Amino acid sequence: MSTAAVDLREGDVRDLDRIDRIMADAFDPRWGEAWTRNQVIGILAVPGVWLTIAELNGVAVGFALTRGVLDEAELLLLAVAPEARRRGVGAALLRAVMADCATRKISRIHLEVRAGNDAIKLYSSSGFSKIGERRDYYRGVDGRTYSALTLHRKIA
């Protein structure tokens, strides 16, 4: 595993082209998990939502989209381009999101992930634990269904 320095910065609507490219590469179209450009624009306008961009050598390779309400947050999207995986990008994004949560006095963060998604390993190793499950929530283009797992983590 290469561990090149991951640069993190706050993102905004000027990053939409980068986000679109990363989502197109990162999310398998079999699941319909990627958001549309209009969905991202809409959520970025909501108070308490923030975007974190991860770059390697000046190129955007990942992002996290988070929404905070009172003392809780939800990680809405986390994506890493396939060519940048296993290089610490996802872990760096999660650390940044949790640090942002702490700064915002958020005590707990939630997320939802499709059962079988490789990202579950990253979330588990970052202290997230399962608190719920929606059976047959995701339906692939082949008709197979998968549960949605709800995970959470307390923020120190």
Architecture blueprint of SSEs:
Elements: E1 7-11, H1 16-26, H2 37-44, E2 49-56, E3 59-69, E4 72-80, H3 89-103, E5 108-114, H4 119-125, E6 129-139, E7 145-154
Parallel strand pairs: 4-5
Antiparallel strand pairs: 1-2, 2-3, 3-4, 5-7, 6-7
Average pLDDT reading: 92
**Major β-sheet strand ordering:** 1-2-3-4-5-7-6
Tell me the name of the CATH class.
Alpha Beta
Total strands: 7
Give the domain tally: 1
> Largest beta sheet, briefly?
7 strands, mixed
User: Measured on Cα atoms, how large is the radius of gyration?
Assistant: 15 Å
Please outline what is shown here.
Helices cover 26% and strands 39% of the residues. It is α+β, with helices and mostly antiparallel strands.
Characterise this structure.
The protein is an alpha+beta fold and 156 residues long. Helix content is 26%, strand content 39%. The chain has four helices and seven strands, in the order E-H-H-E-E-E-H-E-H-E-E. Strands 1-2-3-4-5-7-6 form a seven-stranded mixed beta sheet.
Keywords:
single chain, 156 residues, alpha+beta, Aminopeptidase, 7-stranded mixed beta sheet, 7 strands, 26% helix, globular
